[in-house]
Amino acid sequence: MRRILVFVALIPVFLLFGVLWSGIPPSFEDIHDFEGSLPQHYITQALAENRPYLRFPDHLWGLGFNNVLQEALLMHYIAEKSGRSFVFEDYVWSHLPFRYTLYDFALRPVSLPMNAFISGPTAGGPTPQHAAVRAKFWDLVCPPESRRTISSKDSPSNADGKIIVDWWVERLKTVQDECVEIESKEKIIFDMPFFDSDRIVSLWPELSLSPIVTNFLWSPLVHSAVLRNFAVLQPQSIEALYDLSANTTLTGLLAVHLRRGDYRRHCPRLAGWKAQYNGLNQFPELPDRFNSTPYAYKSDEYNAYYMEHCLPTVEQLVARLATIRKETHGLRRVYVLTNAWGFWLNGLKAALLKDGWDDLKSTLDLQLDPKQTQVAAAVDMAIAERSQVFVGNGLELEYNNVEDGKRT
Question: pTM score, two decimals?
Fold first, then answer.
């Protein structure tokens, strides 16, 4: 009994040791300093110009970067069409009053600067219109007493994306205040059902021509990780990796997004919710369509159809990639964006090599330093954008954003 009590008493010590063994996350103060030094943050000039600003303080937090990114792009689009400077935020994982929080028994920064992930207009990069500013700058030029708060409660519900954006543009035309913030705690402007539907598709023709999209770039930190892993990516020309746009193709590479882990539970939920392909994945011209209507709801055939699209088996993956290889000349290598365990990937690799592929590399093969590790999801997406062919999970948001990048 005494040994049991001693063991129980030592459990917190073992947990603390495990957390500390994972290391202290790196500081991103250099990137915060970079953001602060952007030319639009010269406060004297900004005050003299009487710039109009638009902030969305109730932005998403505590979710994956893909969720946060797609919301930020659309909020910036509203600001751009309204002739206002967008106020960009840090990527926030937790609102704890500490520098770090716990996640998967490891320390994780409670927030990261947006420029750790992306560059371009939405993170304060050059744009023909009013440049975006960071939230800390907003606090300086727009003290609380000078802010005009507008509620989202009267904005359209369950409406097409273009209708929502046009409504906000018209609403903001009537506001003369320089410092405007949107209160959206009670009614989210772009909620999850919006991004899960085809209502976003109507925004693409105009949004795709906006500098928000045409000048979008991954951050130098992300690009440094791509360059660091040239041996994993095996480009035909190293020069291709120095092109910071997504226009350079890694010839011969097929990238495929395979989310495992929590999706063993989540995919059956999606079937129960009758989920469809996510947002921009519903473009009519895309080659793959999702249609579960031929199957009776919750029948074995219905559930199998969902699982094949959401959590495919090794056998299904081998068959699908073989079909794509026959349709696309020159494909030889596979890169897997994944959270899967190594032993499962080893089984997939063996099956693909047997089927004639030259090699398989994955997220687990990337060599990343501590800072690059914190933005690993963006690194994966940057690689997928450059692949000759990208095969995604249409029910998953990461596919939505990679497809967005490849379409530009």
Answer: 0.90
